[in-house]
Amino acid sequence: MFDFERGLAAAKGLFLPAFAAALLSGCVVGPDYQKPSLAMPASWGQTTAKPAKPAQLSKWWQRLRDPELNALVDEAVAGNLDVASAKAKIREARASYRQSVGALLPSADGSASATRNRVSATTAGTTASETYSQYQAGFDSSWELDLFGANRRAVEAASYGLDASEEELRSTLLTLVGDVTSNYVQARGYQARIALARRSAASQRQTAQLTRTMALAGSATAADVAKAEGQASSTEAGVPSLEASYAEAVHRLSVLTGRPPATLTERLKRPRPIPAPRLPIPTGIPADILLTRPDVRMAERQYAQSTAKIGQAEAARYPSVSLTGDISTTSLKLGDLGKNSTIGWSFGPTLSVPLFNGDQLQASVDVAKAQRDQYFVTYKAAVLAALEDVENATVSLSQERIRNGKLASSAKSYGDAARLERTLYKAGETSLLDVLDAERSAYSADDSALQSRVSIATDYIALNKALGGGWDGAIDTARPEIIDVGIGPRLASKDQ
Fold first, then answer.
1. Residues 421, 207: contact at Cβ < 8 Å?
2. pTM (predicted TM-score)
3. pLDDT at 399 over 80
């Protein structure tokens, strides 16, 4: 028998030098990730020769100057379910990263036992019995030396995966802010179009009443009255469809904020003007989207993660070495553990060499390389899609502004014509058909002008989304959706 502390010191004397030697001799296999360099255009297709100003993406929706919209965006960020899911993915990625880091470190397990034993022996017809207690304690440890970097590549891949999950949250927030703003603009647009339809129908009803009066006086016919009333009814018939579209936009806003569909109905029923952005807006240079677009950054991180996984697969083709050791002590008295006891220990390396595996390991490397190529192509596609989004939104916004100017002029002219036609009709100097045609044209022109204002705001939203504008405030990703209580050891209930 010998002292437990001396045995433990001897084991440490063998274990620690080997631990240090492994740290110094470790290497990695597989390709090291290098951020891709893509050829980017020097400027946007619709910009002038003036130096580009950086895009103003921080809280871009506030430049629509609508306090109600600002409040809804804040509420959506706090309550949206897609955002909650993205935050949970970040927590998952963080936990996976900690798991990968843990694989680099040694592991140790302790054990203890106590048994009561009885031994009986019969000699010359006499039976002798002995009862004694036995106590045992010890611990086992193991450590994979990671000579070729499989575990380190796993940590690298997990780190890139964590980055990608954070970019996914930013992408979710970008989409959310854009959807809230777009649906809010649509709702206010429908309110304005409903009000216009009702005003136009009321004016057309006045024309029908005038025609009815003129028919009683013999200066108009029953057919004229029917035509005038028919046009008023036709205009009124469009209101229910507009009301339905407005309700759908409000319902979508409610769900985007994480609440039941009808929650915002009462709150938004009072009409407000269609939000109008401050134009023009700076768009920066195309290369900026590599830093501002979260979907592009997420695709780049996923490409980096797939590159690290090649090293993981490659390392499996090389030998692996593990160090294992255990120390145990056994005694007949609890107080003798570590002193007057039987102590045993063992320590040594274990070498594993892949000899024949039917080419499975090389196939795993080829699979990882093919997946890396897919993610690289996905990254390039994300960059091209981002460039296309900006170009399309820029063209759409600039052309819609031109169109809106023409529509506003058209609406004014048709409005003047309708008023003149009604005045001439009252004086008996023009026909009812001219009045009805002028009123129909005036309503159509006004409605088109309203829709164009909505389109300008929508294109403004699309351009900011395309440039990568989203939520840039603080987001608490550490708090889980479900807070578990009473998870410690306890007696199981009958319901479990």
1. no
2. 0.87
3. yes
